Amino acid sequence: MKKTIDGKALVYCQDAFNTPNGKTAHGLVRFTERYQVVGLIYSHYAGQDAGMVLDGKANGIPIFEDIADAIEPLTKTDRLPQYFVVGLAP
């Protein structure tokens, strides 16, 4: 079992979140020992909580319209990601 995280990550899952093609993002939103997920990119659900969209339970991971939309609020809250993870498998 991993004891430390690699860092903060922003997950990209445009057009695949909450579908079978978004399995990687789903796993990262639900639980990961590798990253601290600070946000998800999917314009359709922008402004919502990723856990609420996926499982009906808020988990504090915001969904953003695009990278530009994510950077300013994440920087202001000291949650700027070091990693960009593609969370879909089309």
Describe the structure.
The protein is 27% helix and 21% strand. By secondary structure, the protein is an alpha/beta fold. It has a 4-stranded parallel sheet with strand order 3-2-1-4.
Topology:
Blueprint: E1 7-12, H1 23-30, E2 35-41, H2 50-55, E3 63-64, H3 67-76, E4 83-86
Parallel strand pairs: 1-2, 1-4, 2-3
Q: CATH H level: which superfamily? A: NAD(P)-binding Rossmann-like Domain
Helix content: 25-40%
Q: Which fold name corresponds to the CATH topology?
A: Rossmann fold
* Domains (count): 1
Alpha-beta content class = alpha/beta
**Strand order of the biggest β-sheet:** 3-2-1-4
CATH class value: Alpha Beta
Could you write a compact summary of the structure shown?
This protein is of the alpha/beta class and 90 residues long. It has 3 helices and 4 strands; from the N terminus they run E-H-E-H-E-H-E. The protein has a single domain, classed as Rossmann fold (3-Layer(aba) Sandwich), CATH 3.40.50.720.
